[in-house]
Specification:
Cytochrome Bc1 Complex, Chain D, domain 2, globular, mainly alpha
């Protein structure tokens, strides 16, 4: 009888530990994924996270860019440089490759991006280092986008 219990115990534990639903990990509102776990067109273009609408970039906001520079230096510069590969990819031209919403969702929700978004998974494969969740606010992420945008404009 003891032997049977030892054989059944792992099966019971495995059955009880699974079952995390895909919808709990989707991480978005209006750009929600289908029930099959596929990404919506919005998520493919703009990433998965709290930014669920396109981010319109108006005229350059110097004050926002300055705030973004401070946040970038404090939280991002340890792994990212603007013009060269470092621990992570160079970010100087990221807004020519990705939408502002995508960049923000990557900053705000890297865990889900790495597990569900094909572009983020490709970055992980290329750089072999996952960006940590820095617990930025949406406003901080937006200011970093403005800083990167300003720096990119300086180099044009």
């Amino acid at each position: 009888m003891r032997l049977n219990l030892f054989l059944l115990l792992p099966l019971l534990l495995a059955a009880g530990c699974g079952g995390k639903s895909d919808t709990a990990a989707s991480g978005s509102g209006s750009g929600a994924a289908s029930a099959s776990g596929e990404l919506s067109p919005f998520q493919v273009k703009n990433g998965i996270g709290p930014v669920t609408e396109e981010v319109a970039l108006g005229p350059m906001d110097k004050a926002l860019a300055e705030a973004g520079e401070h946040t970038f230096e404090a939280k991002c510069a340890g792994c990212h440089k603007l013009g060269e590969r470092y621990v992570g990819p160079p970010l100087g031209d990221v807004l020519s490759r990705r939408t502002p919403a995508y960049a923000m969702n990557m900053m705000l929700n890297p865990d889900t991006m790495y597990t569900r978004h094909p572009e983020a998974r490709a970055l992980l494969a290329q750089y072999a280092t996952q960006m940590p969740n820095l617990h930025l606010t949406v406003d901080e992420a937006r200011s970093i986008v403005e800083y990167i945008r300003e720096k990119a404009a300086d180099h044009d």
